Amino acid sequence: MTAPSASDPRRDAAAAAARTIVGLILLASGVHKSFAAPEEFAAVIEKYYLLPTSYLLPTAKIMPALEVLIGTALVLGWRVRLSATAAMTFFGIFLTALASTKARGIPLEDCGCFGKGIHLKPEWTMALDTVLLGLSYFSRSRSGAHAWLDAWIERGKS
Amino acid sequence: MPLMKTRANRSLAAALLVLAVTAALAGGPRLLTPSWEPKAPDYRRHGPAGAMAVIAAFSDFQCPSCAAAAPHLKSIQALYPDKVAVVFKHRAWDFHQHSRQAAIFSECAGKAGKFWEYHDKLFDTQSTWAVLPSSAASLPLLTGYAKELGLDPKAIEACAADPATDALVAADLKEADEKWVNSTPTFLIGGKRFVGTNQLRTTGLNRVEDLLKK
User: Fold this and answer.
1) CB contact under 8 A, A42 and B199
2) The pTM is what?
3) Architecture (CATH level 2) of domain B42-213
4) Lowest mean pLDDT among A100-109, B11-20, B51-60, B110-119
């Protein structure tokens, strides 16, 4: 476990900013998908050829909610180590899925990552996911930095 | 001791806050997508009047996935010819330069009693007219297809130029926007939504068969 150095307010501020950016992007992505029929997102996931048909719609319903949950937790600074780890897992899964379509020669016009309306080429999404993975790791390494809800809980009597 | 003084209570409150925000942001929008039965002129309906299952197909004549789905839709109807009807709804995309014009011509063919024949013709020949560089270039082909079906080309062109015909297409597009139909082809079967050929021929067909059992 990396002990955050308490005497580095600039790094703490940077970690808090990174956490907020990752959280807001996850929130935007999840909310945007929630404002569309899950069947549409299921049709996008289907093009990855990674999940059996019966799992597509449940995944399309759950994934936006998870994105919103993790995004909210990161923005509010709740359980930051866990939330940042979850975000890293998410971005890791996205990257693996996108890389696997590349490796299998499956053409994806739109990765579906942000729902309908925001179309990103898979290459751009992979670059963005890599940056977000890095930011999540950085947030996790300084999980106590300006974590609003965690700090409020910590101030409570045991 | 006030309720929010202890760590345990604060932990619980924080968890509830995060869950409440998640439920509102991720679950709330779902409540805004009501189930509805799309309406269309009679010539865009194919199948028996008292069909037990009606499939509303939101489609775009220039969309390759829609062309690919059309035979599957026919197969489902062929399985239950006396029980399943299909209603065609226009979802012509702005980014497909020939879509709107093709939709308008299909309306004119429909008014002349040949909607479904023209529908099939457009999908069968999609790779010919959809690749042309402009709407002006595809116009003679669209008129030619109407002529091949025995329709009067002059009457079809006059109908296509009539703003009332475009208004019929525009009404469908407005409905599609309002009901979050953001993907083609989208099928509504008994109030449930299915997107793309795979969903139509798997879970969509299951939905049709469920409706037929009722």
Assistant:
1) yes
2) 0.79
3) 3-Layer(aba) Sandwich (3.40)
4) A100-109
